[in-house]
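hi! just following up on the protien thing from before. the input was this:
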Amino acid sequence: MSKTAIIIGGGTAGMETASQLARLGVEVDLIEKQPHLGGHLKNWDRLFPNRRNSDEVFDYLEKGMNDGISLHLNAEISNIRKSEEKFTIALQDGKELQSDALVIATGYEVFDARKKEEYGYGIYDNVITSVELEEFFRSNKQKNLLEGVASKRIGIIHCVGSRDEKAGNLYCSKLCCVTGVKQAIEIKELMPDAEIFCFYMDLRMFDRHFEEMYYEAQEKWGIQFIRGRLSEASENTDHTLLVKVEDTLTGLPLKMKVDLLILLVGFVPSPETRRLAAMLGLKEGDDRFLCPADEHTITNSTEIPGVFLAGTVKGPAGIANTITDARATAIQVADYLK
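and the predicted 3d structure came back as:
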């Protein structure tokens, strides 16, 4: 008897889980609420640490979408129910799908920087997020980031919405530091005369080659790193920004005028993940990401038989780790279906 699985989420984790399960002979329904696959990967220009074009990774994932996978794009889920060992997913268009296993791969969202009003996002024109900068890189390959501005002084603020009790997020988003380093180098490639200052709490360059990028940023590109937390940004009459920072190494306050402020926004659980978790009765951790059955030994299964987790529904992770996690999920689903 053929076995089936439904995967909710068509980003990196969902695509790779679907691909691996189909190769194992499992019939897959892949549900994605957007009109296209790829998730956040589609928003990135180049990936750290080697700054590979993100389209290459998406092309690899897309090639795995074979005949064993039925795609459901622009699909909104209205209800999930389990009867005995079968799951029934009701879509808002009236269609119903049934499966023997269910994978939640609905990913994450980025922190809404407007919640940090003191940083001026959504108030001042020259305050943008790291996501918006990445979109600029994708669409303006050779364009100057600050056309017509003479001084070109840029501040990059780490940990926006992460490790922040006021924002309600005590956890580290893991990838903001290396994103800031990568983007600082890319700005210098576009604008060699720019002055770039990275304001950080702690630099957490945890993965292979990340530390080397950090040294390259300082030694080759002259990017300056200041250990300090931004307390306030205000706009001057000429639309430049005055930033107030406490230098936590010297204990002294610091004021600086910059032409552009870039906020490195962290990961937060997506509302869709939390909505589906409530339908299924899945556990959330203190960070509101979903909990696996066991944090050490069964990291892709849940306490509900037949329900599995893949990718960043469990917390912040990069592309490579997400793909590896998706493959582990596929193996656990296939083993369960036996």
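Residues 319-337 form the longest helix (19 residues).
The two ends are 10 Å apart (CA to CA).
cheers
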